[in-house]
Amino acid sequence: MRPTAVLRHPLLAAMLMLPGLLVMSTASLACGEPEAGEADLPVFGYIEDIAVRALDREMRAKIDSGATTTSIDARDIEEFEKDDEEWVRFTVAERESDEAVTLERPVSRTVKIKRHGRDSQKRYVVELALCLGDKWVAEEVSLTSREQFSYGLLVGRNHMAGHLLIDPSKKDLQTSRCD
User: Fold this and answer.
1) What's the rounded Cα separation, in Å, for the pair 152 and 61?
2) Which residues, other chains included, contact 75 with Cβ-Cβ below 8 Å and sequence gap of 6+?
């Protein structure tokens, strides 16, 4: 069909232009003004030192918007019962020293992680508070060995949503300022 033929059919012309208009409007939203409250959120780099309240110290962390749930490098994970509830005991080791902290927490839930080419893995999920900017945010954290990863803490979207923004080109933009 010749271009002049398209102009004779306004409906056809509109249908051909619609995808371009959608892309342009979506791009303008992404580059537009921040939503209400966003301007007040602290900006984190993709790597930060994050305080973990239960450990009473900071951990080097990857801030990962691609991860749904936060996970922590937990070792020696043991399930036990306390007051007729399922609890878990686990150890978090400091990577730069030999210091380790053993924690006990009620189990929020368990998840079954399907892994490509390997057996599925059962993971315990507990609630832990992380210092994000100047406030403690308590959310679910999955317990798993992260020794093959560079960072012992991976902060997922569950902890981030509504609490911080990420600049993936930078690191070490924040310091923990929680009381």
Assistant:
1) 6
2) 90, 91, 92, 93, 100, 145
Full-model pTM: 0.76
- The yes/no answer on whether domain 38-167 falls in CATH 2.40.70.10 is yes
Residues in the chain: 179
Task: Give SS3 for 128.
Answer: strand
Domain boundaries, the chain: 1-32, 38-167
The 10s digit of each residue's pLDDT in 43-93 is 999 999 999 999 999 999 999 999 999 999 999 999 999 999 999 999 998
Q: What local confidence, expressed as pLDDT, does residue 96 receive?
A: 77
What is d(CA 13, CA 91) in angstroms, rounded to the nearest whole number?
64
Strand 47-52, strand 57-63: pairing:
antiparallel
- Round to whole Å and give the CA distance between 43 and 41: 6
Residue 72 bridge partners (DSSP):
143, 153
